[in-house]
Design a protein that fits this description.
The protein is mainly alpha-helical and 302 residues long. The protein is 72% helix and 0% strand. The chain is globular, with a radius of gyration of 23 Å.
Length: 302
Amino acid sequence: MDAIISTPAKDLTPVSAKLTKRLIGRPGRIVVWVMAVVWTIPTFGLLISSFRPEEKIKTTGWWSFFSNPGVTGKNYSEVLNYTGGSGRPFSSYFWNSLAITIPGSIIPIVVAAFAAYALSWMSFKGRDTMFVAIVALMVVPLQMCLIPLLKFFTSDWSPLSGGVPQIWIAHAIFAMPLAIFLMRNFISSLPSEVIEAARVDGATHMTIFARIVMPLSVPAIASIAIFQFLWVWNDLLVAKVFGGGSKNAPMTSALVDMVGTKGSEWQLLTAGAFVSMMVPLIVFLSLQRYFVRGLLAGSVKG
């Protein structure tokens, strides 16, 4: 068993990488770079606007900065010192977002990993039908589940009394179909020889899962973690519905309050957007080297 685990794992993505390189070529890379630049222009404009004075933001476009420059840090100062109607500091919204996002990302990944292993390497009646049913849940709109789920959470016999745990469970439920789909595609593409050899050596399902499957599934886990972290971090609807009050409000709620009911203070939104983007940007840059591998694994076999 130890000899199997210590053997260097073979590269699981050479076929998909070679196929992608062959299909794209130099013209394709040029198109990709052009699309990346075009996609980045609005973000670049948002960054410039976040440092412009309020009167210039509201009267001229961000591109006029190059002909009539003006820089101020007042927007960021007001965002970081924002207290809101409840009198709570902006930092409390930031910590609420972390308290919601980290468990809300870990829970569905852990459950999806166990489910994906069972759907890939364990034989039981109705396995394929169950997988199809799980994938079919991806088309169910989130809004259709809000009222039934809220009734369940607020029922007398519900173990959840309110607050942040409800948000964790809600995010985990909504993320589960996609997470299981991606994890199952990756885990099912792992070399069957390694799994069978571990079984011959007497390894149990839990040993195979913990010591072989999970270490080899890091690319898929990282890809799902990026998707889930970005979705939960930027979420407002689920946190508002299941949060149980303003004390559990995330950073997105603070950004909405900053803009005002009539949207007249949107110069603060430019600075607030970049403050809220810092953590997701760090997460994406930390895990992006696994991103494409995790998405392509299982799509091409050779």
